[in-house]
Amino acid sequence: MAGRREGRSQSPAVAILGAGMSGLCMGIQLKKAGIDSFTIFEKADRVGGTWRDNRYPGVACDVPSHLYSFSFELNPDWSRAYSPGFEIQEYCERCVETYGLGPHLRFGQEIAQLDFIDGVWRIRTTGGETHTADVVVSALGGLHRPHVPAFPGLDAFAGVHFHSARWNSDHDLRGRNVAVIGSAASAIQIVPEIARETQRLFVFQRTPNWIVPRRDRVYSARTKRLFRRIPGLARTYRALIYATLESGFAAFRTGSFLSRFVERQCRRYLAASISDPELRRALTPTYPPGCKRLLISNDFYATLERNDVELVTSGIERIAENGIVTADGRAHEVDTIVFATGFQPFDFLSPLEVTGRDGRTLSETWARGIEAHRTVAVPGFPNFFMLLGPNSGLGHNSVIVMIEAQVKYVLQCIRSLAQRRSGYLEARAEAHRRFNRGLQDDMQKTIWTAGCKSWYMDETGRVFALWPRSTIRYRWEMRRPDLSEYDRGAAG
């Protein structure tokens, strides 16, 4: 990859890390802005990120398809309201072809080290290759490293085990005794699908989750034809979905009427779905809906009532050669273990090590708390931007809305570098502190600080993963960068 040239060209060299939806969006918008001096580094052999990695049975988006897609690349042909994962993967691949991103993609290139030296980013891959760039945009996301708990005895297990994000398609589950460890977002999609094949299925639950019905439906050929032929129909439909979801933001404010209403609806759905009072009690959370991720499913509860499916709530003590032993002393004989145990959200960039202007690493900077200025930049790390970084997640709307706002913001920063011929932009420490103080003040008004333990929090209980305000406000604040919040340095 070509680095910064003498006199700086009008288009800085940009390195994008990751070819998931955020990385593709960044590349597309650079192309549309006439900036071709960028490379997208991807550790895998295909684009798609989350949707490439997660191929488990039943994988689907929990945001309506017409909103979980780029506003500039509407898709009239989604098969249903909540599209299955393979359709989103195909959508990503079509975007690459439509916008000519192929020549910019470098597959099999996992980045191990970034160093800001003499006004330029030095990039080293795990394979030992080196590159340089004026600007680095991390599009790695926060949920890409599977988490497998260190259960005692796992190495002694005689059967097959794998994480849901590394699904073993060659392992036939028909007639097997299977354990699914976890009962959250991926588990509630996996369990109903594999229960049709397994002989006996154990679902190990640590903490119950609130669940609401999935208002899913198949789009008919006629509906898709109307989306294609009537100008503005698909965009209007998308806007209606956005407005509906955005109105639900109030449900995540502590003590709000909508929050109480959602809890009543969750309880009614649980009561209507589970007839066994003991099972219903085990599935009832002790925290308000939304404190942990609010899940959607039409068939998880029904699956748990099957005679060949058992919910296990006793903690896992150890894994034995032929199964799982729980704290109550019971041995659950299984030949397959599926870890639906989520990801490592603290490792936004791991195993990548990023060293900034003063020799300080990002991991050292974040040891006191994971945070970013405007969710995209960190003081001490010039020309380094993050998509879906700290406090970028949502509980109520589509993360694509956040991605597009961030990409627009970062693109304007890159244009500023070219137009002003300045060497770098770096978030000012005071602006960074002021922004995050306000963010955390608003966080205290949300349901995410209501007392439950979730992956949204760091070890101190500080919520670093979610945006505590409306997406309308986020889009307004990110409409253009306030360059007074940044220091500008000369080229090296």
Question: Which helices and strands appear, and what pairs or packs with what?
Answer:
Elements: E1 14-17, H1 21-32, E2 38-42, H2 50-53, H3 85-98, E3 105-107, E4 111-117, E5 120-125, E6 130-133, E7 135-138, E8 160-163, E9 177-181, H4 187-194, E10 200-204, E11 211-212, H5 221-229, H6 233-247, H7 257-273, H8 277-282, E12 295-296, H9 300-304, E13 309-312, E14 316-320, E15 323-326, E16 331-333, E17 336-339, E18 353-355, H10 362-365, E19 384-386, H11 399-420, E20 424-427, H12 429-443, H13 471-477, E21 486-489
Parallel strand pairs: 1-2, 1-7, 2-3, 4-18, 7-19, 8-17, 9-10, 9-17, 10-13, 11-12
Antiparallel strand pairs: 4-5, 5-6, 14-15, 15-16, 20-21
Helix pairs in contact: 1-11
What does this structure look like?
With 492 residues, this protein is α/β, with parallel strands linked by helices. It has 2 domains: 278 residues, FAD/NAD(P)-binding domain, CATH 3.50.50.60; 164 residues, FAD/NAD(P)-binding domain. A 5-stranded parallel beta sheet has the order 3-2-1-7-19, covered by helices on one side. A 5-stranded parallel beta sheet has the order 8-17-9-10-13, with helices on one face. A hairpin with a 2-residue loop joins strand 4 and strand 5.
